[in-house]
Structure formats: C-alpha cells, structure tokens
C-alpha cells in the first residue's frame, strides 16, 4: 500500500509512505518531525504498529487565521478513524461522486476510503488531529460490524468505490476517549513494552469509539452553539479545578438554565457534572502525588478541596482505596494502565 501526503504548510513537499498489506509489520516504527514554513509551529508524529498507522498533526499558525490543506493519494482502500481534538476539518473526496464531511473540535468519525485522491481542509489557525488508518481485516479481528447502522449502504459504497461516513454528523469526543488518546500520544515505555502498550491502546481506542452509541445520538441532536458551549465549559472545568465550581456558575457560563445544562452535560459526557468534576480532581491529584511529589494535603488543596479529609473520602469512594496507598503500594501505574 502506498500513501502520498502533500501539506501546504510544510517545506518538505510530498511525503510517500509504503506499507505491507493490511499495514502488517513485526516491529514498531515511529517518526516525529517539524518542517513547516516560518511562523508556523507544527509537530507531526507517525506511528506504525501491526495492522495500523497513526498520523498525528499539531499545528499553530501564529501569523494567520487561515487554514491549510493536506492532500492524500492512496492506492488501496482503508478505514480512517479521525479524531479532531482541536480545530475544524473538512474531508473532501474527489472521484465519481464528490462529497464533503466536516468535523468540529472534540468530535470524530469513521470513514471508508477507496483507493483515491482526497484532501483535508483545516479551517482554523490551531489544529490537533489524529488520523488512525487500518483495513477491514483489522476491524474484523477486533469486533463484529454490529456498530454499523446500515450495513447495506456501506456495502454499496464499497462496491462503487465511494467514500462512506459511518456516523452522519460525527460523534462526541468524550473524556474517556481523550484520556486514551493522551495515553497513546504520551507513552513513556520503550522497546517491546512500548509496542505492546501502543497496540493495546489503539485496540481500546477503536472499541470504545465505535461502541459509543449515546455519543452519536447526542452529537446529532445538539446544535453547533450548544456543542461549543459544552466544550467551553469542559475546558473551563479542567483549567479551574482549584476553584469552587457550582452548577449555577457553570450554567451561566454555558448560557443554559441549570436543568438544561445538567441534562445536556450528562448526555454528552456520560455522567453528572459533579461526578465528572470529582473524577478530574482525583486524576489530577494522582498525577501531582505520583509525578510531582505533592503530599496528599497539598494535592487536595491544589484540586479544590478545602478539607483534605473530604478529598480522602471522595478518593476512597471512587477508587476503593486510600490516597496514601499510591505512595505505599505504587498503585499509580496500575490505575492508569487499567484506565
């Protein structure tokens, strides 16, 4: 299989990638580079593990709000699971039937792409997008095709060599998927351990992403401004964990009444607002204790608990053991590897 990437913001011209059938490989291959025009901060990471190829793009054009285009030519049909972490992407096919698919920040979709030429148009000055490529045999090995709403339409598209989007307007990129993406992109292992870890994370990512039925229903129901308001609030929560976060305050910031805010938040993120906040606080506290040598008291204050005892109670209720055991028994790695 051959892929040709041509990026309008890079200096290196066309990038050609050659793969064995079904992306088969016995070893882990990684490459990271930054070769963009002046004024553009960019990082491109490529990861090739057995049966999958990941192409991650992180761009920030400080001098212009205009977007750019990535053109791709491939000579073999593949699946693309695309996650838009930041920015907005329009996916345009060029063939017998021209069709555009757009994804906004914090959304994702699964595409079937025949052997063809197509392009990604990035509309914002800042964008973070992860493209995961694999073939049908990868899906068949990991799961059945029960997630496909209309198998007949997919089979017709495949027969006619046409693009096909499995989810009409894309799905919501929830906290669980963001966590998996972050763990994949920031893996600290080496050698064979790293290869096994990345392969397992990609499997987890595909399974969770394609079985999130509730996210599809919610994404299709939400208006663009509602989705953007929830994304704004999620970002606010993550950056203000040390502060007091009330339903009333967050509802006002979102522009909803409290009832609508609580309902939409639970539908999109799969849990009530306060449970979500508690989860984020505990996760951050774990990182502070395990990676930065914070005491339990210091960490509890840093994530918004005025009384360390209240933090200990919440921690024990959620995880089933005391925060002191992170230090005494080295449970941090176990917690994160098991999700």
UniProtKB/TrEMBL annotation:
<dbReference type="GO" id="GO:0003700">
    <property type="term" value="F:DNA-binding transcription factor activity"/>
</dbReference>
<dbReference type="Pfam" id="PF12833">
    <property type="entry name" value="HTH_18"/>
</dbReference>
<feature type="domain" description="HTH araC/xylS-type">
    <location>
        <begin position="231"/>
        <end position="329"/>
    </location>
</feature>
<protein>
    <submittedName>
        <fullName>AraC-like DNA-binding protein</fullName>
    </submittedName>
</protein>
<dbReference type="InterPro" id="IPR018062">
    <property type="entry name" value="HTH_AraC-typ_CS"/>
</dbReference>
<dbReference type="GO" id="GO:0043565">
    <property type="term" value="F:sequence-specific DNA binding"/>
</dbReference>
<keyword id="KW-0805">Transcription regulation</keyword>
<dbReference type="InterPro" id="IPR053142">
    <property type="entry name" value="PchR_regulatory_protein"/>
</dbReference>
<keyword id="KW-0238">DNA-binding</keyword>
<keyword id="KW-0804">Transcription</keyword>
<dbReference type="InterPro" id="IPR009057">
    <property type="entry name" value="Homeodomain-like_sf"/>
</dbReference>
<dbReference type="InterPro" id="IPR018060">
    <property type="entry name" value="HTH_AraC"/>
</dbReference>
